[in-house]
Amino acid sequence: MTWIEQIEPGDARDRLAEIYADLSEKRGKVANILKVHSLNPGAMQRHLDLYMTIMFERSGLSRAEREAIAVVVSSANDCEYCIEHHLEALRAYIEDEDTLAVLASADGLETLEPRLSNIVRHADKLTTAPEAMTESDLGELRAVGLSDRDILDVTLVTAYFNFVNRIALGLGVEFSETELKGYHNDP
Predict the structure, then answer these.
(1) Residues 6 or more apart from 139 whose CB is under 8 A from it?
(2) CA 54 distance to own-chain centroid
(3) pLDDT in tens, 135-167
(4) Which CATH number fits domain 13-187: 1.10.3210.10, 1.20.140.10, 3.40.30.10, 1.20.1290.10?
(5) Which long-range contacts (CB under 8 A, 24 or more apart) does 108-115 make?
(6) Against a cut of 0.85, is the pTM above it?
(7) Rounded to whole angstroms, how far apart are CA atoms 80 and 145?
(8) CA atoms within 13 A on the CB side of 125
(9) For residue 106, with 0-12 CB atoms within 10 Å meaning exposed, 13-18 middle and 19 or more buried, which class applies?
(10) Fewer CB within a 10 Å sphere, N or C end of the chain?
């Protein structure tokens, strides 16, 4: 459910039907966060293209690190939809429930292993206090081996989830247990 009209896959026509079919084939189903775009298929496609690029293309960041950023940013924004979706994806990469709990609460991030800690603390600061960011903040990322490309990717993933959190929160995008499960993680 959302607070605005959305077109379900069975009712989609033309370009929207093509996008839904492609999503179903590649990802196993269509997430509610994408269905909320159904009144504007062009925006949906571009949103999806950005998501696939920053979350799945080759990067110095692991998939686990990118999903961890998603969870921490979403926690900082109190976006339960994205916390739950990306915590579910993160479970494929991190089995330690204590680490998952720290990431899901965005509390105690300094207790994580150094590389992951620096990455998610940077994402948290960029989310909660973007005006306080300075060039020296990048030193902590470089200290754990991140290249400038990796730092760009941390920033892009962080910014993307701030964007998506606002869509989910602003339009009342909800999830159910069945909506959370059954996605193909790596296209």
Answers:
(1) none
(2) 9
(3) 999 999 999 999 999 999 999 999 999 999 999
(4) 1.20.1290.10
(5) 109/72, 114/144, 115/65, 115/144, 115/145, 115/146
(6) yes
(7) 31
(8) 18
(9) buried
(10) N
